[in-house]
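Hey L., structure's done. Input below.
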Amino acid sequence: MKGFTLVEVVVAITLIGIVLLPLGRLYSTIAGQMAARQQRTQAIQVLENQEALLRRSPFEGVAAGTVTLPVAELPGGLETLTVTPVPGVAAKEVTIALRWQSAAGERHLDHRLVISPYGGER
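Output:
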């Protein structure tokens, strides 16, 4: 009678498990990193869209102050837009702060720009 003994089967299953467990962890790590990278790319896109909107807006229409809005594209996402007049010149400093939740915890991305009535992208 030919075949495998119970000991051989148990050893083979154990060896397969030893090989597959690290591969499973590696896959999980890579998937998490890809999701985080995708969220960061989406956050950058949100920032670029907001900057383009600000640059197209009339200078007088960009009011000083702080506004916080939800960002649907990011899980638990919030965008805080702070506009501050620059003393002594016709310009405004704009800070765009994005916050969102990822599997690794809270993430953020901040961007600053200065707008003026004299130029820039229109």
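The chain has one helix and four strands. The helical segments are 6-56.

-- N.
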